[in-house]
Amino acid sequence: MPHTTLRALALLQLTLATALFAQTPAAPAASPAALTVPRIFSSEFSARGVGQLRWIEGGTAFLTVEPAPGQRGREIVRHETATDARTVLVTAAQLTPPGASAPLAFQSFAWSNDNTKLLLFTNTTKVWRLNTRGDYWVLDRTSNTLKQIGGDAKPSTLMFATFSPDGQRVAYVREHDLYAEELATGAVTRLTHDGSRTSINGTSDWVYEEELGIRQAFQWSPDSKRLLFWHFDASAVRDFLLINNTDSLYPSTTPIPYPKAGTTNSRVTLGVVAPTGGAVTWLDVVGDTATSYIGQVEWLDATSILVQHLNRKQNRNDFWVGDAVTGRGTVLYTDADSAWVEVQELRWIATAPGVKRGKGAKGAKGAAGATAAGAALVESERDGWRHVYAVHRATGATTLLTPGDYDATITGVDERGGILYVMASPGAAAQLYLYRVPLTGGAATRVTPADQPGTHRYDIAPDGRWALHTVSRFDQPPRTEIIRLPGHEVVRVLEDNAALRTKLAALGAPATEFFTVTTAQGLPVDGYVMRPSQFDATKQYPVLVHIYGEPAGMTAADRWGGSAALCHRMIADQGYLVMSFDTRGTPAPKGRAWRKGIYGAVGATTAAEQAAALRAYAATHAFVDTSRVAIWGGAAGDQHAQRDVPRARRLQGRDVGGPGPRPAPLRHHLPGALHGAPAGQRRGLPARLRHQPRGGAQGGASWWCTGPATTTSTTRGRSDSSIAW
After folding, report:
1. I want to staple 290 with a disulfide (CB 3.0 to 4.6 A). Which of 36, 267, 445, 535 is the partner?
2. How is the chain split among helix, strand and coil, in percent rounded to 5?
3. In whole angstroms, what is the distance from residue 602 CA to residue 596 CA?
4. DSSP readout, 179-207?
5. Cβ contact 589:424 at 8 Å
6. pLDDT by residue (tens digit) across 398-407?
């Protein structure tokens, strides 16, 4: 969320806290320790991280980007994982172009496989929401030369430049076409010739970027002889006009190809071409890709390609394996669900469970680490829990690796040690811990120490022996350290945010209380409550509920809350209870039925369960005043705030959501996933999604966050966390 938007949000929170509950006695005079808007949105309460950290050599060492001496530019530094011995690999002087007075200011970097060349991304500009267009430079460490690539390209027009595995070429997208450049000679070859705003090669359209997270849409084959790329034909997609009312006296419009529910999506095809140019081989993926989705692709070896192909309803994902030479293929494995399925980021192991190690297991590995005797590790909810399965590449047969009534998410693999690492949280959905399971399948063993509650994150090294470990709690900022696996021994603390912990302690605020309540319908719901610092259990307090309530995220998670949580704390200290609940439909690790229970009933289910959870909590806590309840949320949470919770019986609610324009119907991708409504069929959508109202909730108080950070988003036709309160 932009910094300026957060500041505006905080100001609005402060205003609402006063206006909504006029019956509440004035808060006590501020003390030197009191939170204020300027304090919250200054750097005073900013948690520190460790920046870019990249594992190399399997985990023996890692790279960081650090300020150069004298603060003139940055340098790339190698750290030995075990000892922290430090070596500067690339100096700021080496990153200074000939004739320039300052080193390049780079956003990201990549090494060639042999570590002799460094690719730097600079002068970047935004596409949709991320900076993915810019200039690229290559540092040849052997000759110590630095040169820009791209031939005669205009400034900041290259996208996703990527080394070939042999380090001899770089491929990139330039103005909707795919190119390959030979580094030794600088020769540039244009590989596609039909690029335009509606004919897109090597990158994605809006739907695939927004909903499937696909931006770079090309890949090198492991032998560097071919490039696989996506082609989007968006010619049948109608434009949505973004209206800019603020930059000048008269408004201007920007057309964006934007398929709404029931309209035509881009038709996607997958092509294979040599980096020297020539004819394109098109993969014969079965089905009309204008009414389905290509969810993910990857090379398995020099000629085999795996494609994840979703149907329009997104309740079936076919893992199709095709030949790069002929374009033909077959389905290896299918994941299906009566609600929806997810696209997978696959991990490969060289030997499938039950396959004896032998010559086959030592064959040439593809870009994904796949071998003929290997298996893909996939997640599926086919038995009611998110479990990990090994899918044998040779046969498509599956082996369950994580049996039991708990959800598991793949985090890392130690093939040599025979260990699969997963994130799980049996019995504590608001928190998250690391477990290990035998690669042949079996019981899970907790790796995270039992005396460390909270939410844990692990970036496990490729060899599975080391990890970057981060732990936080809602009121406690992150601590980041290097640990050794499987014993979880701390090797070195990289950042503990000690200064921030001291500042937070000086506030004297009570800890946020996490709880589980059982509704009248027997549903166990997790939530949290912030009480005023001067809390008196004999009094009643009005309630502000923070809501999201859908599959993209949890609000009642025990992880560092940052500025948003501090804003809530500021409101609580004015004499209110701030609460949040994760009802069914949120991605809590509580089983398939929990996460997909809203299928076909988004909104209605959430409204009823949020209200029931608050009633259940109030039934055992007399200090909750259910006659004074307000609710706010962003994106889907804003819709719930405006339409649903204020209507719940016996709760005198008021919404605090943005009443901005909501053209009907919504965009093409989400209704199919959450409601099973195929393209062209609006009837499958609930009435609330077929035609959106133009105002706030009935009987509610609608508020709108205006300012320079909100203009573009408001005209997009929906309010989200960056624009609505």
Report:
1. 267
2. 15, 35, 50
3. 10
4. EEEETTT--EEE-----SSSEEESB--HH
5. yes
6. 999 999 999 9
